[in-house]
Amino acid sequence: MPPRTIIHLDLDAFFCSVEELQNPALAGKPFAVGGRPEERGVVASCSYPARAYAVRSAMPMGKALRLCPGLLILPGKHRLYSEVSSLVMAVLREVSPLVEQVSIDEAYLEIDTSHESGPDIARKLQIKIQNEFNLPCSLGVAANKLVAKIANDYGKATSKPGIPPRALTVVEPGQEAGFLAPLPVIALLGVGPKTAQRLEAVGITTIGHLAHRSQEEMRRLLGKHGLDLQKHANGMDDSPIVTSHEIKSISQEVTFARDTHDEKILRQTISDMTDQVCKRLTKSRLTATTVKIKIRWPDFTTLTRQMSFQLPTQERESILKSAISLFENVWQPGKAVRLIGVGVANLHQPTRQLNLFEAQLSSAKKTPTPPDPKVQEVLDQLRQRFGEGVIIPASHIEKSKGSQ
């Protein structure tokens, strides 16, 4: 059986490249997309001239400005980025039905090379994306996903600084271990800083060193993870192209510009995030049985709490009530909060309408029942257009009448 051919594609500084399409005057200038430094913003993406000043993605924007005092800061246009990404991914699917999109600017393709070589297909893709969208991209070509990704990372890292790399790096079948051997061990996927330190402590500083250690030694050192790393260090990877991904959770979180202990602000933020989570549930036609909150204190200590329903729901009031309850269980009045988040998990496709017995059981247990997704979508639209007070539970009306 002939070896597979995998292409790993990465759009170079994607957000910044799209910004330059919108404003060509940005070309050649150091700029970053992200949040304002006074709002604890971070760098989401930065241009290659900015990278020449050591500015990097995920860096606090305040630090980026200190490194590059003339740095221009642009707010993100994420809807635009998503639209452009969709156009690029459509081009990839013209080349192969086996496309795995792993992020807004990154994907794997498994291609048929019976009529054309992998490097030729990759080069044509690179040219087409440049010509049709004026977007630079880099590609790695290899017999598996692991090596294709590392090849692309290597090509980008060794390109001329200050400009988009537009790299194309090819690892021929059978040459995987030889290509990986001289690279630092941290270049291997699955090796983070802490694992790298443990490996370097026993003399493993390159991927080649790791490849030549015995499986038994790696098992003693890192358990099953060590066995996987030893296999990968030899260039072996049989992971398939995954053309669709199941959504496992939906969440929203906010980092406050300044730590806040204002209960009204905290509760309103939870309510606003719940709205966003429920809209995404409705749009995805999903229900959830678990509600989560996440809180980070000023000292960066972070905690999460969760609770579950007996039956899945996408009903806003139930999810909000649970989120507020979780918040009240961990927050003390006057205590400052740096970050807060709301999420749902254990997602399901909405089921058929409950029969009478199930409905009675649900009512008896005070468990929310999943509403019709179309009804929930209308409710979301009404709230968005006329405000939260336009729809209130009938039980609230009855309580109001009773108090008159």
Task: Describe, in short, the structure shown.
The protein is α+β, with helices and mostly antiparallel strands and 404 residues long. 43% of the residues lie in helices and 20% in strands. It folds into three domains: 1-172, Reverse transcriptase/Diguanylate cyclase domain (Alpha-Beta Plaits); 178-233, DNA polymerase, domain 1, CATH 1.10.150.20; 249-402, DNA polymerase, Y-family, little finger domain (Dna Ligase, domain 1, 2-Layer Sandwich), CATH 3.30.1490.
Distance between the termini: 81 Å
Category from helices, strands and their pairing: alpha+beta
What is the annotated CATH architecture of the largest domain? Answer: 2-Layer Sandwich
- H/E element order: EHEEHHEHEEHEHEHHHHHEHEEHEHHH
The total of helices stands at: 16
